[in-house]
């Protein structure tokens, strides 16, 4: 397992109150991430260590992943076509990346593992190969909502189920929708990007299968935080992005049952997707024979370094181990939740009253302050990065009663308890009106 010889982000003494710093033991990062020692400017005119609490948007690359990707860059040549030694190395590396990803998410041996640009692209590919209706929840990230709602063959195939106040009632509503009319697919998030709440994937898979549908799981917010097994959870299709799983930007994956991939037209037409092209006597490309398998949907030169980076991130996460990852996030999450509960006016976001598991995400609002004001204050006064807004989940924010948005703090392997304490102290000062930035806030940022 990787230990934590990481440059910790130490807050300035003025920022951290003794109250929080003294109460609980220091929690170090679980693994080194690149950029952990970044210094950023603050309004006081100096620089402080950056407290990155925006992992759910893009997690920093693990240092081990960055090193492997840099190594691959040094042995980099054309992929799939060249006979040269480095082309062979690059092709082997690209194809090996599929197997590493398959192993990490416990895919079936005959699943197709298709590299995409990100989760959004992976789900758009899933839309392209799915033959019939799709049942989705209204709490989804737009990536798992809007592509399904786009008309295909002249009709909208998405049947949107309103999530209920509990997970139990939501499962009942999904089952009723699937029972009312056949659907090809249930497409559902594994963990909410707004609240971090985890959905019961195995139970959702059973419900889908009971009614003859398959299940696609949007694992963008889960794959780096909880173990996931395509086989044991009964998942048919799984989508995720590298950049939320400690790989650098640029690649995602759709993995799942090959028959739909092979039955669909290529997602992109072009070189690499074809076994044979013969245009004689034909005014279009009807004489083209397309590959089956992943290559069918990966026309053009693929993003080799993206695939390598995802595979290295999967390998690094497997080495860290789900227990260590879960424990690290649990300890930080408890500290964050307990601290937020002590700050006047902080209102946590929650979709379900019966959810029992949450990944490292805390969505909240603060009475009297617009989300953007809070995020700008945290950044400019304290060097803390959080996300504010509607998190590409507008329907969910509306139903949570915050159509104007909220604030989201999110964390992971590179986060220390100092990051959490700095956030709590900064929010505490804002709420109590003791921050020196308060006059400026009154003028510029009130909700
Ligand atoms: C649950 C969920 N699904 C899909 C996406 C889209 O991911 P990407 O922007 O990498 O395509 C996100 C991004 O935040 C997400 O949180």
From TrEMBL:
Protein family per UniProt: Belongs to the class-V pyridoxal-phosphate-dependent aminotransferase family. Csd subfamily.
Gene3D superfamilies per UniProt: Aspartate Aminotransferase, domain 1, Type I PLP-dependent aspartate aminotransferase-like (Major domain)
One term of GO molecular function: cysteine desulfurase activity
Domain Aminotransferase class V span(s) in chain numbering: 52-423
This protein's name: Cysteine desulfurase
Keyword Metal-binding: no
Necessary cofactors: pyridoxal 5'-phosphate
Matching PROSITE patterns: AA_TRANSFER_CLASS_5 (PS00595)
Catalytic activity entry: (sulfur carrier)-H + L-cysteine = (sulfur carrier)-SH + L-alanine
Signal peptide positions (record): none
SUPFAM superfamilies for this protein: PLP-dependent transferases
């Amino acid at each position: 397992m990787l230990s934590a010889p990481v440059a910790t982000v130490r807050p300035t003494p003025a920022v951290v109150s003794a109250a929080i710093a003294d109460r609980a033991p220091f929690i170090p990062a679980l693994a080194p991430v690149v950029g952990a020692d970044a210094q950023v400017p603050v309004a006081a005119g100096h620089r402080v260590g950056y407290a990155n609490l925006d992992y759910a948007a893009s997690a920093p690359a693990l240092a081990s992943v960055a090193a492997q990707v840099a190594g691959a860059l040094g042995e980099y040549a054309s992929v799939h076509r060249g006979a040269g030694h480095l082309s062979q190395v690059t092709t082997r590396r690209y194809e090996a990346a599929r197997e590493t990803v398959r192993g990490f998410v416990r895919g079936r041996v005959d699943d197709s593992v298709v590299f995409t640009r990100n989760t959004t692209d992976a789900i758009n590919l899933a839309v392209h190969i799915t033959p019939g209706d799709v049942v989705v929840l209204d709490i989804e990230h737009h990536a798992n909502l809007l592509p399904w709602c786009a008309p295909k063959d002249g009709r909208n195939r998405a049947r949107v189920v309103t999530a209920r106040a509990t997970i139990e009632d939501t499962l009942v509503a999904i089952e009723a929708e699937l029972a009312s009319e056949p659907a090809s697919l249930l497409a559902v998030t594994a963990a909410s990007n707004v609240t971090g709440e985890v959905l019961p994937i195995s139970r959702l898979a059973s419900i889908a299968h009971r009614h003859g549908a398959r299940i696609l799981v949007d694992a963008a917010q889960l794959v780096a935080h909880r173990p996931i097994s395509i086989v044991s959870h009964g998942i048919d299709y799984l989508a995720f992005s590298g950049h939320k799983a400690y790989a650098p930007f640029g690649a995602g994956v759709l993995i799942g049952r090959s028959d739909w991939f092979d039955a669909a037209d290529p997602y992109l037409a072009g070189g690499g997707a074809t076994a044979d092209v013969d245009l004689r006597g034909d005014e279009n490309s009807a004489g083209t024979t397309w590959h089956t398998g992943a290559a069918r949907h990966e026309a053009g030169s693929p993003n080799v370094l993206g695939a390598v980076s995802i595979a290295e991130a999967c390998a690094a996460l497997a080495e860290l181990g789900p227990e260590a990852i879960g424990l690290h996030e649990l300890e930080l999450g408890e500290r964050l939740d307990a601290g937020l509960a002590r700050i006047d006016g902080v209102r946590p976001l929650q979709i379900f009253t019966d959810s029992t598991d949450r990944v490292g995400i805390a969505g909240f609002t603060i009475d009297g302050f617009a989300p953007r004001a809070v995020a700008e204050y945290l950044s400019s006064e304290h060097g803390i990065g959080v996300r504010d807004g509607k998190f590409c989940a507008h329907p969910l924010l509306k139903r949570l009663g915050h159509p104007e948005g909220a604030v989201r703090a999110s964390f992971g392997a590179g986060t220390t308890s100092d990051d959490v304490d700095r956030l709590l102290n900064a929010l505490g000062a804002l709420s109590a009106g003791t921050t020196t930035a308060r006059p400026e806030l009154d003028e510029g940022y009130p909700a």
